[in-house]
Each structure stands twice: as structure tokens, then as C-alpha cells.
Amino acid sequence: MDVAEIAAEHGLIRIADKALAAVVREACLEVPGVAAMDSRFGHALSSRIAGEDAEGVHISIHDNKVSAALYLLVYHGPRAPEVALHVQERVKEALASSAGLGIETVDVFVQGIVFGEEGRFAHD
Fold it and tell me: In CATH, which of 2.60.40.1220, 3.30.70.1350, 3.30.1360.70, 3.80.10.10 is domain 3-123?
């Protein structure tokens, strides 16, 4: 488990990667055009960091800088590169405002497109 450490006036604050993954996942799902996190990736990853909140998110922390790899399903219609750019911006804002940590990278992987109201989708 990766942990970010922040020196505070009265001691040390540690934030687990699992907690950051939950913040990142919610930030992703708030972006218009994002249908869901890719559960295929999330299932394998959640067993590694012991948290269901990590679905579709991989967080690593090095020198108190966060790197995030995000695996998304996007809706058909909006341009996928624009959705991905908005996701990157939103995740950077969420991490900066909630944890005050530096961001090294936010990599977005569009794993599939969701078509129509019934949720029919196509993976890569």
C-alpha cells in the first residue's frame, strides 16, 4: 500500500492510496461523458489494494506526488479526447483540494464506448 505523508504542526498525516483512489473515482464520474469506470480493470486492482472504491483507478505515490491511471467507459457522442482532458483536469483539482498533494501524472485509458440508453457497450 502506497501512503502519502504530510508533515503537520502537531504530527504526521498519512493518506492511503485507497483513500485517494476513492476521491479520484468520484471526480471521474462527475465529468460529463464518463459512463463508468472499467470494472474489468477494477476487479483485479481492488484485490491488490483491498478496496472496492478503487474500481478503474490505480494510484501510486512517489515522493508525495500522486500518479493516477484511470480506466474509463465513455458515452458515444462526446469526443473521447475532450472527455479525457476534462477528466484529467477534474482529477488534478480534486487531489489538490482534498489532499493538497502534488500531481505527477494523470493517465486516462478509454477502455470502451457505451451506446444508447440500454447501456450497450463496446470494449477495445
Answer: 3.30.70.1350
User: Is the distance from CB of 24 to CB of 92 less than 8 angstroms?
Assistant: no
Which tens digits make up the pLDDT trace of 23-69? 999 999 999 999 999 876 544 444 344 444 468 999 988 887 889 99
* C-alpha distances in Å from residue 83, one per residue of 23, 30, 37, 89, 101: 18, 11, 13, 10, 24
Read off the C-alpha cell for 50.
Answer: 483491498
Helix axes 80-99 and 17-29, enclosed angle (nearest 10)? 140
Closest by Cα among 76, 91, 6, 1 to 35: 76
pTM of the model: 0.78
